[in-house]
Specification:
Length: about 220
Amino acid sequence: MVSGALQIAGLLVGGIGMIGTFAVTGMPQWRVSAFIENNIIVFETIWEGLWMHCIRQANIRMQCKVYDSVLALSPDLQASRGLMCAGSVLSFLAFMVAIIGMKCTRCAQSSWQAKGYIILTAGLLFILSGAVELIPVCWVANTIISEFYNPMVNVAQKRELGEALYLGWVAAFCLIAAGAIFCCFCRCCETTRSYGYSAPTHYSTHSQHLHRKTESSYSKSQYV
């Protein structure tokens, strides 16, 4: 029952992380315009994402345009494109492998080892996808903070951390947590399986000893 609860919890947390990863990849709010010093034009907000940049005016009108070329992006956003796509694919694969592993919940005793390997693979994929997602999110956040406090950067070009970065940290944490849960489940399966195998062996040895003792007594009485 505990193992089943671990599976369900891991799948739910991993699903949340996977959906969050998809959302972060498509959101334009990676870099948001900062209103500091003389830059007080608050009726216009600029969003910069991995695929497009948007201009929102007075919470009424928003215009978005897809980047004409990958070269138009900064190096951190260029790398973030590929890493976030890789993280999305890995999280989806991990989710599907976890579902396949959960379908073997009531499998035979001989299939417990295969089930453990499937769940362990899902856990490792979840952890890997979370780590891959953390790299671009932290990289872009570090670039934004460095440019914000750099006096050589024009005030109009300074940006703040967007909502996509915060959501990316949460999604990465969920993916890593799901991977840890599935790895713990695999450990529980290993412990249960080893206990299940050792108990019958002890019982059979004890029964064999009693059988030999009875057989010996029977032979002696028959001889007399």
